[in-house]
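Note to self: user wants both folds in one dump. Writing first protein now.
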Amino acid sequence: MSRNGDQLASSVLSARSWLLLTKDRHSLQHGGNDGYEEELGHNYRFDSTVPNHLELTLGDRILLWNGSILLGISRISDLTTRPSSKVRHRCPMCTATKIKPRKTLSPTYRCHGCRAEFDEPIREVLSIQEYLLEYSQHWSAFQGESSAQQIRGLAISSKSQHSMRELNSQKLNAFLTHLDIPIQ
């Protein structure tokens, strides 16, 4: 199912702003899932297990960052959803998803819940809704002079660990003005 066109024009008036975390699948620190295939400057993927997955809508302003620096800004121009499945990895001792792969030590994984070490996590297959945001139409790449602390401070809940965080519009507009980035 896709939403676009005339809906975008009317939704910009009631738009919210979001900070979206994007990571290369090969640089993930978290071992609980396999990440998402994304193309920076074009699309962003997430699923129904991600907090705030139902909150993003057409016309919403988005800032993409990698956890350290701001990568760019845009507006959501299309949002598509479809049924899919997802593999989640769990600790074989406590079943938590707080596991991380280790690069040099053996066993391969360590659980940051119970501290167990193991080579093979439990694989759980979930039925999910997969979401694809398109934003290339309004994309402005930006790698500015801003710290991770400044970027986190734009969120309504600045201590949030979520990969999709709602932003405080007044703080965001002041931030964009200070960096001389056009407010879209």
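First done. Writing the second protein, which came from a different request thread.
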Amino acid sequence: MNAFARVTKELALQQAREADGMFRVHEDLGPLMGIPIGIKDSFDTCRTITSYGSALFSNHVPVRDAEIVSRLWRGGAVCVGKTNMFELAVGVASPYFGRTNNPADPNRTAGGSSGGSAAAVGSEMAYCAIGTDHGGSIRAPAAYCGVVGLKPTHGRVSLKGALHVDGLLDHAGPFGRSVDDVELVAQVIYDRWSAVRRLGQTPAIGLLDWMREPVDASVGEALTEAL
């Protein structure tokens, strides 16, 4: 898949051992304790290189973790690697790391710029993964790879320590194989977590008119079934 810019094997084993030790003494850090995740290479991690998908930062080790990474550590998550991304989160596949391929068909792309995160989840190399979205970089790879991607309300997830493209449009959010999985991640990374499901309230779904424009029959059927 070429989903990872780097696999953090030793870090993952260390964090897994720590989680095992906490389980034995009945310490519970939350819903992601011991769970393997991928983190887009646009988030600073002080325990490994953060290259932002570019050869310019091939040896860059940040002095501190991004806020979202710190929240994942406090929640007990296990980092299996930094996921591949478009160079500097815009444009095209990184010439340094190469294209991320699609889990359903490796001859096709996983999309971008968070394609590595979507492919890692879609191929079951990680339970969940973290990405960023400026103009579709969570939503498009999630659709390409058949997983759930959430672009949260702006400001719900901290971008402190993340590569910025545009402060007014940048979002950070999770990928998972189901809505329930994504909800578990949101509980850990959201600045303000509040349960969405409330007794007596019926959820509403908005559908943009252009989503009904001519598409392949299979795509239209999938959309109708999801609705």
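Dump finished. Worth passing along: Helices lie at 9-24, 67-74, 115-122, 139-145, 179-189, 217-226.
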